[in-house]
Design brief:
Layout: H1 5-11, H2 16-23, E1 54-76, E2 79-98, E3 107-113, E4 116-128, E5 139-146, E6 149-159, E7 162-172, E8 191-202, E9 207-218, E10 231-241, E11 246-257, E12 274-287, E13 292-307, E14 311-323
Antiparallel strand pairs: 1-2, 1-14, 2-3, 2-4, 3-6, 4-5, 6-7, 7-8, 8-9, 9-10, 10-11, 11-12, 12-13, 13-14
Length: 339
Amino acid sequence: MRPSRHRHQLLATMVLTVCISASSTVDAKADAGGVGFWLPGGMGSLSAVPGQPGWSLTSIYLHVGANAGGGKDLQLNSSVVAGLHARADAVGFLPAYTFATPVLGGQLTVGVLGVPGNVGVGIAATLTGPRGNQISGNASDERATFGDVYYLGTLKWNQGVNNYMWYVLGNIPSGTYDSTRLANLSIGYTGVDSGFGYTYLNPQTGHELSAVAGFSYSGMNNALQYRNGIDFHLDWAMSQFVSKSVHVGLAGYVYQQVTGDSGAGAKLGDFKGHSVGIGPQIGVFFPAFEGYTGYLNLRGYWDVVTENRATTQTVMVTLSFAPSAPEKPTTPRGPRQLK
């Protein structure tokens, strides 16, 4: 079925991928040398579609599994390790506000995200330990903790079926990072990511296509004397509305580290990473409470190409409530004249 004009208005209520982009940093620093500030696939369908003014609330469940065989060396905190197995389960809560007054002709949204969760890490061998010690064997760590606080801002513009977006995402360290532990949700440094997005959304045909590209800039992790290089990422998604409220499709990403890692703690050199991933998605809109529309999205990613990074499998479940678009008033008709 083709999305109706009213469905197009419902689509415009959502700030979905802004919320997802903030949640993407849940797994941002599982290891210093193999993962960057941005989680590939953080942006998805309808990324650049403007919403309705007012408050919105999004909750995100994120599961990430990362594996690297014994033949692949990665840096975890101050150690070079092989045989890495990591897992993170986290839930993010994002209240956001969309302003009614245009800014630079676009729609401004700002929000703040908090992330509690549980993370576990296991390694099969440590090749070079802290202070140069040689360590071998198995080690693991698991704990429930809090990630950093993340802030975000977006500007969105709409021109018919074309939608455009600029965004910025950054973090405020929470103080829960511990360089002596394997398991962390906090990343141990400040970072910022910014870029542009585009969404093609045709309510007549039900076709949707989104792409978001950006760069990540990382500060120094003073505890490790380690600084990530600049990362480039391209997230994309395409979907088809099969009814007025359901769309299905594919999503994927390309991640490329542009400049090398640096600092006295970078034991593996510049260590530029690269990955490509793809997976399915489904999204469902539904009536929520008065004046609000709900949206549930499920998508998963699998790495198909990796270099200097652990191979990851990611599942994201997003539940969002945002202001509904007002109904178009109907023109009252007067009584017919009888002849």
